[in-house]
Write a structure and sequence with these properties.
Blueprint: H1 3-15, H2 24-51, H3 61-69, H4 72-83, E1 88-96, E2 99-106, E3 113-118, E4 125-127, H5 131-135, H6 140-148, H7 175-179, H8 184-206, H9 210-228, H10 234-241, H11 291-296, E5 301-302, E6 309-310, H12 320-338
Antiparallel strand pairs: 1-2, 2-3, 3-4, 5-6
Length: 346
């Protein structure tokens, strides 16, 4: 990124945080919220990169290697550059010193000729487009030369650490900050975080083989003995946190850490739950009933016309008395309309 681009990026970042009336306290709060959003977005991207599989053909070796080492966004950019390889052709020229010279030309469209210098022993080189120096990703001209030379993997010196999948897995912590004891609680938290990072690094390395795993576990046991020497055992500390400052957990005063007769807890697999479809009712036969069947099973109510518990009411009661009453009311309304006086027109 050049100076102008870095400046514009910074300005666009702070445009939505700072206004002419923003004071220092509001700026600090907004800046902290912005950092949290950035970390959340990076965490989501790391999760997608680790768990979402990228579909690559078996004969695309460079793309398959890029899918293993690069993040999703960088992988998509690398894939685009590799897709442009077929638009170019390569002509080999006379070598200079220890570098072979290749002229990469465009087959059609706007003319383009770029020189690629490559050392076939170490696969180090440069391209006139300077795409790797500016962006950090191999350009299509370099990839065209690699395709011609049947290079199946990306050289390590062309893979920048910041584009790797585990770039954010271990964040660097300055040791000078850990040495400050101005705030004891803060220093303890920093030390704990730093030790967890270093332990996870070693665990990732030791998990590759069984021999490394045994070496790691043996070293952890030796380290545990050195740290626990002349110190309170960890079990006693956990009991104090649970409300047993004297290290006892039984009413009779017996020590819980030395209690070897305590029954062990057996952990079983969780119950398998139904993940698809509607859960069946326990009291039914398993068949889902229709709305007509459900309506027929509804609780009967009392009809005011016939004074009986039935599935009808006074509006649709089939009893003769109710039918006669409805007819009488309808005829009465008709007679009332006929007997109304109509004003005469003058």
């Amino acid at each position: 990124m050049n100076t102008t681009g870095r400046s514009e990026s910074t300005n666009s970042k702070f445009d939505h945080l700072v206004t002419p009336t923003t004071n220092l306290k509001e700026f600090v709060i907004k800046f902290d919220d912005s950092l949290k959003r950035i970390k959340k977005r990076e965490s989501d991207e790391d999760y997608d990169t680790e768990h979402k599989f990228r579909i690559v053909k078996d004969d695309e070796f460079l793309l398959k290697h890029a899918a293993k080492v690069y993040t999703r966004n960088v992988y998509n950019k690398f894939k685009y550059e590799l897709s442009q390889v077929n638009k170019y052709k390569v002509e080999e020229h006379e070598a200079q010193d220890s570098y072979n010279i290749y002229m990469v030309k465009r087959k059609f469209g706007e003319p383009e000729e770029l020189v690629v210098k490559l050392n076939l022993q170490t696969y180090e080189g440069t391209c006139e487009c300077k795409n790797f120096e500016f962006v950090g990703i191999l350009c299509r001209h370099f990839l065209k030369v690699f395709v011609r030379l049947d290079v199946d993997i990306i050289p390590d010196h062309f893979i920048l650490p910041r584009w790797k999948q585990e770039a954010n897995k271990f964040r660097v912590t300055e040791l000078e900050v850990l040495e400050k004891d101005g705030n004891a609680e803060e220093s303890k938290t920093l030390r704990l975080g730093h030790m967890c990072q270093e332990s996870v690094k070693l665990a990732c390395i030791a998990s590759c083989s069984h021999e490394d795993y045994l070496i790691y576990m043996e070293a952890m046991k030796d380290l545990s003995k050195k740290l626990n020497k002349d110190k309170v055992p960890l079990s006693a500390i956990s009991e104090k946190a649970n409300g047993h400052p004297d290290g006892t957990s039984h009413p009779d005063g017996t020590s819980h850490p030395d209690d070897t007769n305590a029954p062990s807890i057996l952990l079983l697999d969780p119950n398998i739950s139904q993940t698809k479809g509607r859960k069946k009712d326990v009291n039914t036969s398993g068949r889902l009933k229709s709305s007509i069947e459900l309506s027929s099973e509804r609780k009967k109510r009392k009809c005011k016309a016939c004074n009986k518990y039935a599935k009808h009411d006074s509006r649709n009661c089939p009893s003769p008395l109710n039918v006669k009453r409805q007819r009488t009311e309808s005829f009465g309304d008709g007679n009332a309309v006929e007997n109304e006086e109509v004003p005469h027109e003058e």
